[in-house]
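Students often ask why we bother encoding 3D structure as a string. The short answer is that it lets us treat folding as translation between two languages. Here is a chain of 259 residues written in the first language.
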Amino acid sequence: MRIVLGLEYCGTGFCGWQSQSQGCGVQDALGAAVSAIAGEKTVVTAAGRTDTGVHAAFQVAHFDTTAQRPLTAWVRGVNSHLLPGVAVLWAREVSETFHARFAATQRGYRYVLLNHPVRPALNHGLIGWHHRPLDAGAMNRAASHLIGRHDFSAVRAAGCQARSPVKELRLAQIERRGDYLLCDFRADGFLHHMVRNLMGCLIQIGTGAQPPEWMHEILLSRDRTLAAPTFDAAGLYLVHIRYPADFALPESSERWQFA
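And here it is in the second language, the structure alphabet:
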């Protein structure tokens, strides 16, 4: 049978989602925990391969098994074998047509940024930080140039393995809440470091170093060297994954609401 899991994790204790030879990936930890409950070797596949230091308030992964277990075993049982920084939220049985990565029609990330002269200590590693005042209005005007289907080569990491740099960005929105900026992005897919590179550009615009129209120029250039440096991973969260309605899966988690 094919089982799908919803999970959350703190990226500070892992070297990203992807399995590594040293066993430091979230995939390594989850795969070992699932295998312990299944009593057989299992491989888990996720909707999105987050980088080192990137968090997930909502990640989806699936695996195949011949083991007959109640769904509660795939939640409580698996959690009993996991490190504190990762937890399974729910489990469902799905048809073999489901694939956590390839069946996803939309993904969403939120970047949580502290905009304050003094760096964070209590939330170190969990939020991004910029010390100079940022104009959220200018950042939103810049973000409006991102909406639609574009070639995002200018904000694509050199080692990106995506077949095409063309993606459809459906939401790009910055909301200020006191000293925090909540920066939300939703698209049919994301390139490696795409959100972090967009954040670097938006912050330059927010400080006034570049006008909002610069974002449009960067996109048209398709030149990574003209865009801003990659911004810190600390404040980036995978928060939303959408699948076709017939799978009847949640799109996000109600457990994590940054306010």
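Translate back mentally: Residues 122 and 128 are 12 Å apart (CA to CA). Keep this in mind for the problem set.
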